Amino acid sequence: MNHLPVLLVALYLAAALGLPLLGRNKKFPAGLFAVGVAGCGLILAAASAWHVAGTGTYSYFPGGHQAPLGIEITIDWVTVFLHLTINLLAVLVLIYSTADLSRELGGGRAKTWYYSLFFLLLAALNGIVMAFDLFNIFVFTEIGTIAACALVAIRPKRLCVEAAFKYLVLSALGSGMVLLGIGLLYMVTGYLNIGAMAQALPKAFAMYPWNVLVALSLFVIGLGTKAALFPLHVWLPDAHSSAPTPSSAALSGLVIKVYAVAMARIIFQAYGAELFSRIPVPDVILVFSTAGIFAGSVLAIGQTDIKRMLAYSSVAQIGYIFLGFALVTMNGIVGGILHIFCHAVMKSLLFLAAGAIIFKTGIRKIEDLAGMGYRMPLTMAAFSIGALSMVGIPGFSGFISKYYLAFGALAADRPVYVAVILLSSLLNAVYFFPIVVRAFFGHKEKQMTWDRLPWAMTVPMVVLAALTVILGILPGGLVRIAELAAGAWLN
Amino acid sequence: MIAKLISNMHFLTAMVLFLIGFHTMLTHSNLIKKVMGMNIMETGIFLFFISVGYVRGGSSPIAVPGAEGYINPLPSALILTGIVVSVSLTAFALALIVKLYNYYGTVDADKIMQLRGGEE
Q1: What's the whole-model pTM score?
Q2: What is the pLDDT of residue B119?
Q3: Fewer CB within 10 Å, N side or C side of chain B?
């Protein structure tokens, strides 16, 4: 049972390598195969979660070599939480992609390549969240970066290639800084293992404060670029809005957050919450995430393209996650971790619904959405649920994470951030409600028609919308996992 | 001070290379030059890593009779991976540039921005 999480990465890597070979057969059902593999991944993740719930968290040493000489993989509650999120979303997005991809990529073998890249990305994401070794985090980050850029560039449109290049250059800058930071820390501690480093760092900090501080700032800027922390988000709107819809959902829903988790793991488990709060880095992150929350929302208000608006909204939402982490209080971190899941679910829902509208009608402009509630009632209902959750209306999952964030801000004795959360929720309403209102009450169509979408598109949307509502009403289990995860980070 | 700097020349060089690459990547509008900057930056980091593991007078980490002290092999092994990562990033970036050139007929980022105009 201990091998399950590692098998998860191996499964995805094998699928990524096998797909181009299997795809040589023209009749090979690549979409079905991809959904099957991701389904196996979800089962592995769920079994691993069940195992951890029974026997507790553990460390895994590939090849049996003990740390710090060997590589350590940690299966703690953060890993379990993220594995479940990633694989659940992957299954739903892949089901959706079987209906959508032919339109976006054209015919030929592009679909097989797409799934191959998608599995590389999944392997990297699953790897990053369980790596307990700085260099491992770096290697998985790079795999994820290349796969994510390729998932944007694969669409045969010049805008996508340009967006992917911008994404690649900024990500490469980020990874350069992360690697330099790893070098600076290795220089003064002699370890790459996060656990061993945590023990060596206080002494190293006393002797070589500059190395440790510069490394911390390099991590924050490098991983912040990849996670689109304001003002390093400039690549995000182009990349996420021009990508094929399944890529947009996965990139906005999963990829940027996994980098945020990698940063938080380095900060809380290598540096430790105590050392981290002694230097004014949390304050800097708080300022940037607050600026991101407002700037992302304000920029989203000005957008006319629906996918671009959703992309800017991601800039704002990633700000909440960093806000929670940088508060360095129990409830704040719980709120940040919860928001990873809640935002993954609702942003994927919104992207899939927007993609379904584009698939069916070709409409991308927000002003043209008037009366859409009569032409595609199911899609617009799903979109509305996502939008309400995004604003943080009680009864939807988005409310739960904001609730914990607000309590975290109070516990940190910074009530101003409660005001930030409230005000930004109002801003979210400013750009989401007009769409909903216009779609349902804009101008009445003569008669109501059903969506007539392929079932592969409706099922993921219905599941995601149901998850948003169910978790908004019964968040108990999710909150408990997030509390266990946050507890491990604060000690 | 100066003597200290000279004896730590490799660290200084690594930082200078890193900054040259960083600057090139951000300020040049020619896409090929951006990729060159990326490579210079990464070379700087590689040099930095290798310097961390270097022991003056140490021999390569193979057990041979008569060796007095070895250099640390770990950074060199890590950088092997780093080089692989950097090569794949470069290859991917160049492939994207080829595609961009086919679409826009130029490798200048500013001109591409102009051609793009208000396209959404």
Answers
A1: 0.92
A2: 54
A3: N
